[in-house]
Design a protein that fits this description.
- Helix 3 packs antiparallel against helix 12.
- The protein has about 280 residues and is α/β, with parallel strands linked by helices.
- The chain is globular, with a radius of gyration of 19 Å.
- The protein has a 4-stranded parallel sheet, sandwiched between helices.
- The chain has 15 helices and 4 strands.
- About 50% of the residues lie in helices and about 5% in strands.
- It folds into 2 domains: about 35 residues; about 250 residues, Rossmann fold (3-Layer(aba) Sandwich), CATH 3.40.50.
- Bound molecules: adenosine-3'-5'-diphosphate.
- The site of adenosine-3'-5'-diphosphate (A3P) has 18 residues, from helix 3, helix 7 and helix 13.
């Protein structure tokens, strides 16, 4: 009871004090995670944003459950607790989902306790392509005036380790706590789909029958997901002029090479050598 009163108060204060919004929203998240129940059987799909998270959520859901796609939104069957904590305020529904839960996360490595026993599927995507996808996402969903260069500076190579692609990716690839992580990549899913789905199935202990493989293929195809965009995209918040039907956008590899200018490419290559190169073996 006292928590719902605090949550109500936070929402109310956010409305009247725009500047204290972030602090209050963090506080609400902390309240959410106080009641959130971890399970050893949880399967986290962890990515830097725009790396194929939703694609892998759909694959997992079709591997582990009956593949009934009648849910309104993928978060109904594969939740994103951080999103819920910022919006709904109560982990009740997620705490009651059947095991194994398929949980979306864009959290940085240190968010998880060192003794976490869950399974993690880390989806790596080529960094320049991530920069392009992220640019379109932010332009469509947040700021129609956004330029690629501004997005590259402010979101992608910012000093904030939660948002800086190199630091975020580096920590997950390093895996200093030895979490149980399966590393796959967006490119492997594009170029070697069936082998990669088999890797995922093995990791989550599913025997991949022809019937299961067929439904995984059908429901996780780009065409199917594009056609049912509303089930997967970010839920539209407020500003009507923004675009909300581009969450499943192009699904291509290599786009980054045409967007980054020579200076950005040089910066990417240098940082790649410093932060990522060493760990690439893990994704092979
Ligand atoms: P693009 O913007 O490059 O098209 P996330 O789910 O992590 O936000 O990732 C979104 C990216 O994955 C988008 O990339 C989206 O189009 C792509 N994507 C989603 N479903 C896909 C699928 N079935 N096949 C290929 N790409 C897919």
């Amino acid at each position: 009871m006292y928590k719902s009163m605090i949550l109500f108060l936070c929402k109310w204060l956010e409305k009247i004090h725009e500047h204290s919004g972030t602090a209050l929203s963090n506080f609400r998240q902390q309240l959410y995670f106080m009641d959130y129940e971890d399970r050893d059987s949880d399967i986290y799909v962890v990515t830097y944003v725009k790396s194929g998270t939703t694609w892998v959520q759909v694959i997992l859901y079709n591997l582990l459950f009956d593949g009934n796609m009648e849910f309104e939104h993928i978060y109904d069957v594969s939740p994103w607790p951080k999103y819920e904590s910022a919006n709904n305020g109560s982990p009740e529904r997620v705490n009651h989902l059947p095991s194994p839960r398929i949980i979306k996360s864009h959290d940085k490595y240190d968010f998880f306790n060192a003794d976490n026993k869950a399974k993690f599927i880390y989806v790596y995507r080529e960094g320049k392509d991530v920069a392009v996808s992220l640019y379109h996402h932010n332009k469509n969903y947040r700021d129609p005036e956004l330029t690629f260069d501004k997005n590259f500076e402010e979101y992608y190579i910012t000093p904030d380790p939660l948002i800086n692609w190199f630091e975020f990716t580096n920590a997950w690839l390093e895996n200093k706590n030895n979490f149980n992580v399966l590393y796959i990549s967006y490119e492997q899913l594009k170029n070697n789909y069936e082998v990669t789905v088999r890797k995922i199935a093995d990791f989550v202990d599913v025997e991949l029958t022809d019937e299961i493989l067929e439904r995984v293929k059908k429901h996780s195809s780009f065409e199917y997901m594009k056609q049912h965009e509303k089930k997967f995209g970010e839920k539209p918040p407020v500003q009507a002029q923004l675009v909300y039907n581009e969450f499943i956008r192009k699904g291509m590899t290599g786009e980054g090479n045409t967007y980054l200018n020579p200076e950005q490419k040089k910066l990417y290559d240098d940082k790649f050598t410093e932060y990522i190169q060493l760990y690439l073996k893990k994704i092979e």
